[in-house]
Design goal:
single chain
Length: 292
């Protein structure tokens, strides 16, 4: 498959038609470059808050409500584009008011056959806990698709090895992200690359980029697209299959061969994925006193 991962800017939208045109252009661009799987970033849907006007877009809790109310319309648009271009799409995540005490950070996954499902973020960052008041939603899922087995770790989730281990059967793990500083981008990137090493799979990171001065929550964004694998047999020595340019909007693309993933898991120079259980015994510690 060919994966396209986005460095996606948030725009001010004067109408729903403007959003339709923007998304259609992005999908057409990736599909035109041969992409089979498109990855949009975390909180990329926050631009939909602008459709309710400047006051709503600037107020955090109001913007959460406004965006949540737009997500079914967004789903219909994504399904239409997925079918028209015969691509799988991970839509930009959004705060969604669902059957939980708090809104969840939800990314919808769309197949060209018309199927859809979602993945909710598992572990909230400090700003999501307060002031956003976002909570955890559904458990992790493994999506069995025509392209292979795909998992999703939304931004901060990629920094937790046990969440990656829960997706050990995934061929590809998608990592949509939204980070306001270069350090944040690198935390997520290091997490994505670490999960690729540990699970001997491919990870694909997307980012929100640029400024959104109309917002008080996603006003500054730093990042780029990147696709990573284990630095082992069949993959680049750096583990980097492709990377974009920092803060430059657009797609980053790379070819991914499921056979290469299977081969490195079976006969790689190292076998992190299969040797993982050995940690359970060897990871125990003894306390040694080396002072008087």
């Amino acid at each position: 498959m060919k994966i396209a991962t986005a460095a996606y800017p948030l725009d001010w939208l004067d109408s729903w038609a403007q959003y339709e045109d923007k998304l259609a252009a992005w999908v057409e661009d990736a599909a035109g470059q041969g992409a089979d799987l498109l990855v949009f970033p975390e909180y990329g849907a926050m631009e939909l808050a602008t459709l309710a006007g400047a006051e709503a877009a600037a107020d955090l809790q109001t913007s959460i409500t406004v965006v949540s109310e737009r997500m079914e319309d967004a789903a219909a648009l994504h399904l239409k584009l997925a079918a028209a271009h015969n691509v799988h799409i991970l839509g930009a995540s959004a705060p969604v008011k669902a059957d939980y005490d708090l809104p969840v950070n939800r990314a919808e996954f769309y197949a060209p056959c018309g199927a859809r499902d979602h993945q909710d973020k598992q572990i909230m960052t400090m700003f999501e806990r307060d002031p956003w008041q976002i909570g955890a939603g559904c458990p992790l899922k493994l999506f069995d698709t025509a392209l292979g087995k795909i998992g999703i770790l939304i931004c901060y989730d990629s920094e937790f090895p046990l969440l990656g281990r829960a997706l050990q059967e995934a061929d590809v793990i998608l990592v949509p992200s939204c980070t306001e500083a270069l350090a944040g981008y690198w935390r997520v990137r290091i997490g994505a690359m670490s999960r690729a090493l540990e699970m001997q799979c491919v990870t694909a990171q997307s980012s929100v980029v640029g400024s959104a001065p109309w917002s008080t929550s996603v006003e500054t964004n730093v990042g780029m697209g990147g696709i990573f694998g284990p630095p082992d047999t069949g993959f680049p020595s750096t583990g980097v299959l492709a990377e974009g340019r920092l803060n430059q909007p657009g797609w980053t693309l790379a070819e991914v061969d499921l056979k290469t993933i299977a081969d490195v898991r079976a006969a790689g120079v190292v076998r992190n994925r299969s040797h993982w259980p050995e940690q359970e015994e060897r990871g125990k510690t003894s306390r040694i006193l080396l002072k008087r």
